């Protein structure tokens, strides 16, 4: 239960900072324990400290629009699969959001399987993946039913507790989409980390729907299967005039696997602002004429990953592949909604999903690391975006501009 805004007690009076977790564009996240809990370790929290909108200038000018939006949404939402907001503490020139603490996130779990944490690169068990997807979609159904579009789903923003509970975090880019006063594009011209960005966003759509979140879920599903991002493109940055460039490389990565989208497959394709760029992109490129195909990519997962006996994606039969295809559908109107995805046979074949994604798993994942050297929440600077829980090369090519909480 959200306890409200607290202006009477300072953050250091209520919480003892254990260490620093991560930093990003809007501030820093710390691990903390309650000074009132008995014993203190029974109540762990993640505290996000927002920096001023123009920190470093002589005159304090408030906090970012993203911070205000996140605070407004977090105080209203309550669901077991959405990260819980405990309270917001207001201090002079400082705002802190206190979240429940989660010991893991999907990026950390994928990294553990990818780097020999199990005595060699080994795939995530199928039962674990099914539970993660089930819980993720339940949280997404709740958000969408309440007219909230997340707009930044990726493994680093999906928290997992030690009890195997999956929770959607980081609502900094989330927006209410019920009868907006202006198009969502007008407020935020760039949303969703590049590797998880839906085709309609890449093609410059000025109006989009919660289907962008379901494309991201499809990308996350694929990454859980293969331990690698399925569409690992390089992002073209905006120029000095803040013009949004066509993300040619990212679109190439999608087309190389899925083939070129067509008007027959996606009737509104030709109305997309960047459609002429898409047409020119295919000229003379043999890889677009002979795409790998989703089925070949899926079969490659079986060959390239070392699965424990009886736990590979093949144990789900064709249902897992069909769900993946239905999420990674070019046409957003044909893409599965979160509600329909939960009804997919994938979740009922070969055993129902568990509410504990670690159930029956003997894998012991390391706890998220925190830095003891940079745990001063009062004076902490904002040096960059490196996450303390993963080595530097784990984020190569991954735009880590945003914070994650929990």
UniProtKB/TrEMBL annotation:
State the oligomer form and interacting partners: Component of the SRB8-11 complex, a regulatory module of the Mediator complex.
Region described as Disordered: 368-406
Signal sequence, renumbered to the chain: none
| Named cofactor requirement(s) | Mg(2+)
Q: What is this protein called?
A: Serine/threonine-protein kinase SSN3
Pfam families hit by this protein: Pkinase (PF00069)
Q: Which GO terms describe its molecular function?
A: ATP binding; cyclin-dependent protein serine/threonine kinase activity; metal ion binding; RNA polymerase II CTD heptapeptide repeat kinase activity
UniProt enzyme class: transferase
Q: Where is the Protein kinase domain?
A: 15-347
Q: Does the keyword Membrane apply?
A: no
Organism listed in the record: Paraphaeosphaeria minitans
Q: Which Gene3D superfamilies match?
A: Phosphorylase Kinase, domain 1 (3.30.200.20), Transferase(Phosphotransferase) domain 1 (1.10.510.10)
| Keyword hit for Transferase | yes
Q: What is its EC number?
A: 2.7.11.22, 2.7.11.23
